[in-house]
Amino acid sequence: MVKNIHFNVETDLAAGLLALVKQLDRSLELTEPVQMYIAGGMATHLYTASRVTADVDAEFSKRFLVPADLLVETAEGNVLYLDAAYNSTFALMHEDYLRDAIKVPMASDHIEVYVLSPVDLIVSKIARLSGPDLGDIQSLVWNMRITAEEIERRATEALGGYVGNMSTVRMNLEEVLKIAQKYELESSPDVD
Which of 35, 123, 143, 171 is the least buried, fewest Cβ under 10 Å from its Cβ? Predict the structure, then answer.
């Protein structure tokens, strides 16, 4: 597992996320703590600063309706919104993904922000593996030094709770493992 994580909370997008979290806190008139677990492109951005996104994929420790008017425009003109359609049950998720999520040093009065661990974030992208997912995975592998062995172990454990086309998920997993193996080969010292 990754140690000593530096989150990119100084970026324009991260500042927008913090503004969105604070706006959500005020809008819901929260009086007790709520945990927010971020996945997707925003989580990738917080780890690598290499991803730009408009939607924030998140789930919460409490249930509520997402306010329809919840939008934030960042200083650089990016618009952020909370994706009310995000649903982690459609992704390949390890049973401990929430327990292993990592707290981000940003919060509002009542909302604590967490992101999926880097390996769980990679695993969460395996079932769909479309659009920017491959780029996100490559960026996470390269920046967070996630090994093929870590990905394979966590994904294999997650398969036990997955319902869907297993052959597609296994094929996607093989593609992701090749990305991690390529990084391992390129980053290992040459041995003569």
Answer: 171
> Looking at the DSSP assignment, which residues form a beta bridge with residue 102?
115
The Cα–Cα gap between 15 and 26 comes to 17
> What mean pLDDT comes out for the span 140-153?
96
| CA distances, 107 to each of 8, 30, 86, 99 (Å) | 14, 13, 21, 18
Whole-number pLDDT of residue 51: 85
Closest CA to 154 of 103, 100, 115, 86: 100
Question: Which residues on neighbouring strands pair with residue 35, listed in sequence order?
Answer: 112
Tokens 């991260």 — which residue?
14
Residue 33's closest CA among 99, 114, 121? 114
Any idea what DSSP says for residue 92? -
Query: What does each C-alpha distance from 120 to 36, 58, 103 come to in angstroms?
Result: 16, 14, 14
Element (H, E) at 156: helix 148-159
Token digits for 192?
Answer: 């003569």
pTM beyond 0.70, yes or no: yes
Measured distance CA(187)–CA(101) in Å, rounded: 27
First to last CA, the chain: 30
Rounded Cα–Cα distance for residues 18 and 47 (Å): 15
Q: Count CA atoms within 13 Å of residue 173 on its CB side.
A: 24
